[in-house]
Amino acid sequence: MTFSPYSMSGRTFYGTGIELTPGIFRFSAMYGKLQNAVKPDTVNTQAAYKRMAYAIKAGIGKGSNFIDFVVFAAKDDINSLDSLSVSNSEINPMQNLVFNVNASKSLFKKVTLTAEFGSSALSVNMNSNESSENIPNFYKATDFMMTNRSSTIYKKAVKSSLMYSEENYSVGLAYERVDPEYTTLGAYYFNNDFENLTVNSSVKFLKNKLNVGLNVGGQRNNLDNEKLSGMKRFVTSLNTSYSPSPKLNMSLNYSNFSSYTYIRSEFDEINQTNPYENLDTLNFTQLTQSAGLNTMYSLGDPTDKELRKSISINLNYQKAAERQTTQNSNGGSFFYNGNFSYIHSIIPKTLTITTSLAGNLNTISENKSFTIGPTVSVGKSFFEKTLKSTFSASYNQSFINGNSQSRILSFRLNGTYSVKKKHNLGLSIIILNRNLQKENNTGNFTEFTGTLNYSWNFSILK
């Protein structure tokens, strides 16, 4: 669940959550475990305390007129690790309390003002002494939620923008500042110690066939002047889309803004056997550049109600400055992804056939890994579209520095059956065969995964 970028943002948890949107009101809440207690071992596993958290979000409004309030709290269980594990790993239990306000207001119908403020109190060591010094006035009123300690640091983040919009263009100014050491335990990784000031604009050309969005500005760090050196650089992002005819659609994007992201190739999704298989919290990467090109072309008349055929090409490039893993960080990493697809749809028979070829190339330090393979899928609906089914077959082979590493063959069958648009029954069957290219054939296996799910859609307010 995501409550705000400065508090709880896309963090996987084990627990329960709720989201309600009755009319102009919205309410979200969660409670659960962010991480298990992990004892250090001989393979240098990162030790960790059991960490529990809760978050509440309440807001009112709609469109560009709204205000949201967020409270996020996380606390480590000191008793989840024994004293021997703590002494061997040299880790400290932490506690975090974050308050966040996000608001937007439309002015004069053409001007939109947005502002977001986050404040984080982080105790980096819950074993440190309690203290009544250096507490901001606001946190004095919330001391029942978190105990101030000598190790508690208080940091803030702010983001605002002013945008003027017309029918064919918009222009605005954006500002963001995040204090050094600003941290929230509700995100895997977080950029801090930076200040951005950018000019944002978007323009439509050629009777709305060409759309161009451009953000340019400056960025600096070392905001408290405690580092040996600071950095000032020019930052920009470009997003364009071009549709010269109903048959052709193209989009191009580029950005050199720094951001943390989870690098996923198409093969991560192709080869996974459950939705949670690739949620590796230690595999996030700090990007310094990214670019992408997406193209789709219709073969024949795109409005044909009998037969539609199209091809698509997607290319992506990412450059990383730092890779977050269990080992030391490294720079100079490059990630390339490419996909070519052909889609054939027979509309009266609700039949869609898709063939694709994907490739992924990663260069990390002196190692190069390459994966390539085809996928064929067939989708078909039955009984007036109440039963939808998809069957796909994939094959891909991986290489490291030119040496074959593995071959994976998988078959997937998915089906969903809908009753009165409220009850949905789903079945997923996956057969995956993995063949590792090793002399002793260790690690070879065939895996069968079956998943049955039921969902019920209902409204409690009329």
What does this protein look like?
The protein has 462 residues and is mainly beta. The chain has 2 domains: 1-189, no CATH class; 246-462, Porin, CATH 2.40.160. Helix content is 4%, strand content 60%. It has a 22-stranded antiparallel sheet that branches. A hairpin with a 2-residue loop joins β11 (232-245) and β12 (248-255). The longest helix has 7 residues, at 83-89. The two termini are 26 Å apart. The mean pLDDT is 88.
The overall average pLDDT, rounded, is: 88
N-to-C order of helices and strands: EEEEHEEHEEEEEEEHEEEEEEEEE
Helical content, roughly?
under 10%
Domain count: the total is 2
Gap between N and C termini, in Å? 26 Å
Task: List how many beta strands DSSP finds.
Answer: 22
Gyration radius over CA: 25 Å
Structural class: mainly beta
Can you lay out the helices and strands and say which pair or pack?
Elements: E1 14-20, E2 25-35, E3 51-62, E4 65-76, H1 83-89, E5 95-107, E6 111-123, H2 137-140, E7 152-165, E8 169-178, E9 194-205, E10 210-220, E11 232-245, E12 248-255, E13 259-262, H3 266-271, E14 284-299, E15 307-324, E16 333-346, E17 351-364, E18 367-382, E19 387-400, E20 403-419, E21 423-436, E22 445-456
Antiparallel strand pairs: 1-2, 2-3, 3-4, 4-5, 5-6, 6-7, 7-8, 8-9, 9-10, 10-11, 11-12, 12-14, 13-14, 14-15, 15-16, 16-17, 17-18, 18-19, 19-20, 20-21, 21-22
